[in-house]
Amino acid sequence: MAEAAAAAANRARGGRLDREFRGVSLVGPGDRTVTRITSFRSTDLAPDSAYQYRVAAVRGGKRSALSAVLTVNTKAPPVSAARWQGRWTVDIRITKGAEALRGQGPKGWTEAWQASPQCPTGPCTVRLTGELNRKAFKATLTRAGAVYTGTTTANVFPCGKPADSVPIRSTLTIQVTVATAQSVNRAWLAGTWTGRMTISSPYTSTSTFYCNAFRLTTAISASF
């Protein structure tokens, strides 16, 4: 009886993962020794990663020298196949309508957003939670390829001074496009994304003050 042993090394993302596959049988029907094996299937590999293989023959307690290294690269799936998930630090910059904001407040923000896919694996509809102007919002974004879109309402720009403000139910329309992807722990994940968000706020008034309707357009982006 003869057996083969193969070792594989994964150098994805600067790391190294060593594996050894033992007991690849070279015995044919009727216990006839097969003198040659022409293929070997390795599963559960990371996408867009380099693997190296070496082979040795083992028989009668003796093992041959390892063969020369064979390097194999797994294919990179399309960006549209990347799973958009996790916590992101999002850069938000007003590109139109900033004059509607009172005072000398910021014309942009850096906020924390969390993308939670509504499926166990792969890309799908995402539940997005985060902040804008330090005010929380939630939205459901549906997927079409690498593009995610959704609309929600939230009180992100209250009307009036902080001490006596009233909420404004602004409409947030969000579009995110995954720009790059990468292999992380054998999963194909979004690496960077860009998009836009528009905020439409209605006219709001109280017995003592009012706030005009306004519309903001923002550019949004984040990287892994």
What does this structure look like?
This protein has 224 residues and is mainly β. It has two domains: 3-73, Immunoglobulin-like (Sandwich); 79-223. Helices cover 0% and strands 55% of the residues. The strands form three sheets. It has an eight-stranded antiparallel β-barrel. Strands 1, 2, 3, 4 and 5 form a five-stranded antiparallel β-sheet that branches. A two-stranded antiparallel ribbon has the order 13-14. The radius of gyration is 28 Å and the shape is rod-shaped.
Task: Name the descriptors.
224 residues, mainly beta, Immunoglobulin-like, 2 domains, 8-stranded antiparallel β-barrel, 5-stranded antiparallel β-sheet, 55% strand, disordered N terminus
